[in-house]
Amino acid sequence: MLELYEVKKSFTEPDGGDLPILDIEEFHLDAGEQMALVGRSGCGKSTLLYVVAGISRPDSGKVMVGEWDITLFTEPECDRFRAEQIGYVFQTFNLLPGFSALENVLLGMCFAGGRIDRARARDLLERVGLGHRMTHKPTQLSVGEQQRVAVARALANRPKLLLADEPTANIDSGHQQQVVDMLRERCREENVALIVVTHTPEVARQFDRIDNLEEINRAVVVK
Amino acid sequence: MSLWKIAWRSIQQRALASALTALGVGLGVALVVAVLVIHGVIDRSFKRGSQGYDLIVGPKGSSLQLVLNTVFHLSESIGTIPYSYYEELNEGRFSSAVETAVPVCVGHDYKGSMVVATIPDMFDKLTYLNDRRYEFAEGRNFDLAEPFEAVAGSVAARKTGLKVGDTFVPKDAQQDVADPDDHAHQSIKIVGILAHTGTPNDRAIFMNVEGFYRFGCHTAGPTLAAKLMKPKTEPAEEKSQAKDERAEAEHKPGEEADKHGEDAPDRHGDEARDHAAHGHVHGVPYDQRQVSAVLVCTDMSKPQLAMQLGDLVNADSVAQAVAPSKVISQLFEGIVGNVQLMLLILACLVVIVAGVGILVSIYNSMSDRRHEIAVMRALGASRVMVGTIILLESILLSLGGGALGILLGHGLVGVLGPTIAEQTGVLVSPWSFQYNELILIPGLVVLASIVGYLPAAVAYRTDVAKSLTTAQ
To answer: How far is CA A115 from CA A106, A111, A153, in A?
Structure first.
């Protein structure tokens, strides 16, 4: 489902020099597989997700999502591919404040350019337990509810891969398990491959596969 | 969910700032609309006023002043021409090219409304605005046989408070009247109120020219032999009336006629009216009468003669012939048009400044929205999509402001309408719509696209990864 080969990414430092962030020889994730990605801050976890999502382009290497090497895509192709094939859950939820819960889910469909499937959007919200709060704005929802809306939004376009960047970091411990369970359950239902970046050992331990990026990212080893 | 809706939600999210920005555009557009509507209506009304006759024959002098005074009842009269000149147009050497000739005499006013002396043909035969006939809201046209009858224009009636049946004495007429003791003839009776025409005639009061001469106005020494007047009454009456008057002129020399005109009818009002009703019109002898101008409808069945009429009159040393439509066009193109252009430019500048307000408003919000844009991009929105959303937001703000401005503009016209009608006689309705208002819509879209370009470019160039990382 997801394969990375010799992916390198570096940033330009203020003095003009290169700061290597990612240097991954090989990385695989099967279809429907769920894994936790751990590692200390600054080891490149978020950058890896951006590269996989096509938000950032690697300096070199191949990023295969399904049968497609997204590094060969033009930017608009990449945007379209991301809208259709990849779901993204942010640490801070990033719901758009002017839109209701339902509209936030529909927003993802709008960018995919396909038919706006309101029934699916409603169904997803029902399945994350927010059937009664569809018309509420993000400010009228608790943080746990906001994250559930974010999960529904990420799944709106039936993606093949869902990237969750520290989805429980802003949620109190009482609700963390609820969000993780919901996330894993929904991905299992839709056969979506899941990468959860987390700093929380309790969350990571629930996954059969736990990768430490510090171990597979040669840029970190060099530093 | 469409991009329009996303843009609309963005506007809703910053409701106060958006409303103030749209209000700025609205005020600018309201000014443009008010200028366009008021100018358009006045333009039509002024041009409309000159319709119904092709030429004004008046004394030599400023053609513009002649038109302003005769058509618009503004400015001072530039003088008079002998009554005989009217007769030349009506039944003399120029008559073959003339379909209708109507004399007008000015010089008095009543409570600020000009009193114009004329004959009933003014409303019976002349038309306005492409052959619209004058109608009376109340009463009837004045009768040529009743020297002291008058009709009032709609605005003049409202302004002076005159109603059908009321009598009035024109300002200064009392001192001009031939016999100051003649109270019976100093009062002029209103017998009709004209329906609103939207022309300057709404602002004037029109009295029988015969009564006007009884005030001793527009008279000169007896320079020509008394001529017969041929009042425009029923065709059947014309011959007998002319015959009677001819007989009267033959048997009464100038002095006697003068005395008769000043004394006899004045002292015996009812008897004189009866007398006049039989075609015996009394007053200043015809050779002493003067007119301010003659309104001439040329005979369009003889176009060549009609075209030569102006040249023939102008060749005379006595009078000039002016085509009012030409003078009015020159006036509008030369002066009024430029004023309108300046006002329009100013109003457009206000709209442009308001457009810059949109730019500032959206641009200032961009720093707060960078993260929002990055989220949209992460969800799959392309650069073009987020740029388009910002452009649509700008367009929605300007169109919303434009719609508000059109409403405000017409509202402003509605508020100013009564004052304009009072001052100019031109009825400006808030529902008067100018076709060039339609230009505002694409104009605003273009303006919004221009001012929205910069913030749209900012949205387009947003670094998604950086913006997402910064927010986290």
So the answer is: 10, 10, 15
